[in-house]
Design a protein that fits this description.
alpha+beta; 14 strands; five-stranded mixed sheet; globular; single chain; seven-stranded mixed sheet; 9 helices
């Protein structure tokens, strides 16, 4: 219900974007690290609303929110039940009026993801995943790794990545080189959608086959991973670290504080994509 209400809070801007009723000043855009990294007033409103509701029901639980954390150090996970919130994932899409953005609410128990809820208001899709109980889109269970998902290879895959906020020459070159290696290897196509949470949900339901991050400084944060991880893993996907030194940590053992990740519809396509992306 919190995700649905926060999603409704986003629709006024979406409905007015590009029309005579649009008023961009209502968004009150504030930059963070650079002009590519910013938050709107609705990001803040959504996080305040969700946090307030959680505290009413679970006053002893911890909360980690993207906007309250800001550009500072993300608090560590403990054994205290912890909610991890991204009030709008895909803020750039949202501000521009592009429909691919969502509200993401994750819950960690004993330091590991346990539940994820993701609502994309403009596509009216509600994803829910609970550890050991499967993943669902609008109440219909997502298929686990079977059929086409189980046999997918990199050459037949839709591969997703996000370029993030890195703008220096070295990082841009690293990210571009990884994409070049993929295209030279041969993939069905590549996509960059602007919402890491939805990337994971879309891999979970087979709309895309693999997503990676962490080639350079474009790595994600816990609120980009938490809810989407539960949904993808419960849909039978393989989610692990992109870095070979961390790649033994899979599924619920994935480190939410890692700066690199790869998630695919099966383990073989994850291994194949990792080797190409890293140039191994």
């Amino acid at each position: 219900q919190m995700a649905l209400e926060a999603g409704k809070n986003m629709t006024k801007h979406y409905d007015s974007k590009g029309t005579a009723e649009e008023n961009m000043s209502d968004l009150q855009i504030n930059t963070k690290m650079n002009d590519a990294d910013f938050a709107t007033a609705i990001d803040v409103e959504n996080e305040n609303y969700i946090s307030t509701e959680i505290r009413k029901m679970f006053p002893d639980h911890a909360i980690i929110g993207e906007e309250s954390t800001g550009t500072g150090t993300v608090p560590p996970l403990t054994d205290v039940p912890t909610w991890i919130i991204d009030p709008i994932d895909g803020t750039t899409n949202f501000a521009a009026g592009l429909p691919l953005s969502c509200v993401s609410i994750g819950l960690c128990l004993e330091g590991k993801p346990y539940m994820g809820v993701v609502f994309a208001p403009m596509t009216n899709e509600l994803y829910i995943g609970v550890q050991g109980h499967g993943a669902y889109r609008n109440g219909v269970r997502l298929l686990e790794c079977s059929g086409e998902k189980a046999t997918k290879t990199l050459s037949h895959s839709v591969v997703n990545f996000e370029f993030g906020y890195a703008r220096n020459e070295e990082d841009v070159d690293k990210m571009a080189a990884a994409v070049q290696r993929l295209l030279r290897h041969g993939v069905r196509t590549t996509r960059t959608l602007g919402s890491g949470v939805l990337d994971l949900c879309y891999v979970g339901c087979g709309r895309m086959d693999v997503v990676y991050t962490g080639i350079a400084a474009e790595g994600w944060k816990p609120w980009d991973y938490c809810a989407g991880l539960v949904i993808a893993v419960e849909a039978g996907c393989t989610m692990t670290h992109l870095s070979p030194s961390e790649m033994d940590k899979k599924g619920y053992d994935f480190d939410l504080y890692s700066k690199n990740m790869i998630c695919g519809v099966n383990s073989n396509v994850v291994d194949e994509c990792r080797k190409v992306v890293l140039g191994l």
